[in-house]
Specification:
Largest sheet: 10 strands, antiparallel
Number of helices: 3
Strand order of the largest sheet: 10-6-7-8-9-15-11-12-13-14
Low-confidence stretches: none
Mean pLDDT: 90
Helix content: under 10%
Oligomer: single chain
CATH topology of the largest domain: SH3 type barrels
Protein name: DUF2642 domain-containing protein
Length: 221
C-alpha cells in the first residue's frame, strides 16, 4: 500500500477504517505499516492494516500545520511499533472500537500489546492489532483537564507477560473487564484459557467462551 499512497503526501485524503470509521486529513507521512494524517485539529497515526480504502478528497480545505505539532517521528522510517514506543509517557488518545476513545498514556510496549494508564479505567492492556489510531496530545493538554499531580506514573499492579496470550494466562482466577465492559458477558472471572478461548464466568455464574482474538482491551476492576 505504501507505494500507492505515497504520491498523495501533502494532499487531503479520505480513509475508511475497519468498523466503517471515516477519517479525513492531509497525508503527512507514510511508513512501513502506518500513515500520519492531520485533520486540522489532531495528528492521527493510523495503522495501515485497518485501512479499508482511501481516496483523494473531492474538496480540499486549506489546512495549516501548527509549528508546535507533537512529533513522534525519528529520522528512520516510521512504523507503528516505533510510534508506540516514542509515545510512552505522553498523553494520547487511543481508539479501538465503538464510541469510546481512551485517554491516558502508554507505560510499556510488549510483543503484541501495550500497557495504557487511563485516569478512568486505570491500568489497561490493549492489543496492538486492534488499535485504529493514536492521537498524541500537545504538551499543554492533559486528559479531562486534570492537574498533572492527579496523573502520576503508575506501574502495572501485576507482573507483565511478554504476549497478550501469556498475560491472559496470568490472569486466570481474576475478575476482569474486557472491551471496556461493552456487554455483560465481557465482565467476569477468567476460569480457564486454552487454545485462544477464554472461559469467563459472569456475575450470575453463567459461562461464556470468548475468542481472545476479539479482545481489544482488558483491565481489572
Amino acid at each position: 500500500m505504501s507505494k500507492l499512497i505515497q504520491p498523495f503526501i501533502g494532499e487531503t485524503i479520505t480513509i475508511e477504517l475497519s468498523g466503517k470509521k471515516i477519517v479525513k486529513g492531509v497525508l503527512l507521512e507514510v511508513g512501513s505499516d502506518i500513515v500520519v494524517l492531520y485533520n486540522g485539529e489532531d495528528f492521527l497515526y493510523v495503522p495501515s492494516v485497518h485501512i479499508q480504502y482511501f481516496c483523494k478528497s473531492d474538496k480540499e480545505d486549506s489546512v495549516s500545520i501548527p509549528s508546535d505539532a507533537p512529533s513522534l517521528n525519528s529520522e528512520d522510517e516510521i512504523s507503528f511499533r516505533k510510534t508506540l514506543n516514542a509515545a510512552r509517557g505522553r498523553f494520547a488518545e487511543i481508539y479501538t472500537t465503538g464510541n469510546q476513545p481512551l485517554h491516558g498514556y502508554i507505560t510499556s510496549v510488549m510483543n503484541n500489546y501495550f500497557v495504557f494508564y487511563s485516569p478512568v479505567y486505570k491500568t489497561m492492556l490493549i492489543a496492538i492489532q486492534h488499535v485504529k489510531w493514536l492521537i498524541p496530545y500537545t504538551d499543554q493538554q492533559t486528559p479531562y483537564a486534570l492537574d498533572q499531580q492527579k496523573l502520576p506514573v503508575n506501574p502495572a499492579p501485576f507482573t507483565l507477560g511478554r504476549t497478550y496470550e501469556v498475560q491472559i494466562e496470568k490472569l486466570v482466577g481474576e475478575l476482569v473487564i474486557f472491551n471496556i465492559g461493552d456487554t455483560f458477558h465481557h465482565i467476569g472471572k477468567i476460569n480457564r484459557f486454552e487454545d485462544n478461548i477464554i472461559e469467563l464466568v459472569t456475575a450470575r455464574e453463567e459461562k461464556y467462551y470468548l475468542n481472545m482474538h476479539h479482545i481489544k482491551t482488558m483491565h481489572l476492576p
